[in-house]
Design brief:
With 184 residues, this protein is α+β, with helices and mostly antiparallel strands. It contains 4 helices and 9 strands; from the N terminus they run ααββββαβββββα. The N terminus is likely disordered.
């Protein structure tokens, strides 16, 4: 399984196991001004969206755009929506910040984001990610009463610190359920 599929699977599994109530809805959280359930057409033209498509990430149901938007806060942003949806309703938003030199800085930034969003978070501490290279991840997640979820996770790769990162993912319940089937 390639690294991106492995990352998606771990994030998905954590989000599926986390159900801590509905203090707030995920769709109220904005990442670069966008939220789950918004139409991408509120922010971009259809041409801009189509130019940013990453082909065949989820070929049978969802499309993914990559770096559709210049961002000052994050190193990248991806947005996921249904393939046949002419309104381009957002089902997933992911961003990341690189922390190649110091994973402790990632943990500090992770805590800042968690404090920005007032929710009842589930925190598992630091978990093994890949036993072969001693990589780890530290997920902090929340799932609202509708099944939409957010995850703020630090990934540490001791053998290639250039890919250490803080990843923030917002996913609709429908997209999470799709990922569960897709990754099995």
């Amino acid at each position: 399984m390639d690294l991106m599929k492995k990352l998606s699977l771990y994030i998905f599994l954590i989000l599926m196991w986390c159900n801590v109530g509905s203090a707030k809805e995920i769709k109220e959280i904005e990442v670069e001004g966008m939220s789950i359930g918004d139409s991408l057409l509120e922010y971009f033209t259809e041409e801009e969206i189509k130019e940013a498509i990453v082909p065949e990430v989820y070929p049978d149901k969802f499309e993914v755009t990559y770096n559709i938007k210049e961002t000052l806060r994050f190193d990248f942003i991806t947005v996921t929506y249904k393939s046949n949806d002419k309104k381009y309703k957002i089902h997933g938003i992911s961003t990341a910040l690189k922390f190649s030199n110091n994973i402790q800085d990632c943990y500090k930034e992770q805590n800042k984001f968690v404090k920005e969003i007032s929710m009842n978070w589930k925190n598992w501490g630091i978990l093994p990610f890949d036993d072969e290279d001693n990589s780890t991840y530290k997920p902090i997640t929340f799932e609202d009463g509708k099944g939409d979820a957010i995850s703020i996770s630090c990934y540490y790769f001791p053998e290639d610190t250039s890919i250490n990162n803080l990843k923030i993912s917002l996913d609709s319940r429908e997209f999470k359920n799709y990922l569960k089937e897709y990754l099995n």
